[in-house]
Specification:
- The chain is mainly alpha-helical.
- It is about 80% helix and about 0% strand.
- The chain has one domain.
- It is built from three helices and no strands.
- The radius of gyration is 17 Å and the shape is elongated.
Length: about 80
């Protein structure tokens, strides 16, 4: 069960990161109509927040804390 959860977390993290860079590419290389700029700012803000959370988890102290807890529990949940 634990491996399945980790796989889903990795897939979700990958989708958020890919979405962030795809949206960034679209913003840089295409014109945005004036009527869509406000909603686009909201979407970009949400995606940046999600991207920050993913990077913080996988490369920050959260993954270290999880690994330490796993070691202390003998690899059990």
């Amino acid at each position: 069960m634990k491996k399945t959860r980790e796989i889903y977390m990795l897939i979700l993290g990958a989708l958020i990161v890919i979405g962030f860079f795809v949206l960034l590419y679209i913003l840089v290389y295409s014109g945005i109509p004036e009527t869509n700029k406000e909603i686009l700012n909201i979407v970009v803000g949400a995606l940046i927040g999600s991207f920050t959370g993913v990077v913080g988890y996988f490369f920050g102290s959260s993954i270290g804390s999880k690994d330490k807890a796993d070691i202390m529990n003998g690899g059990q949940k």
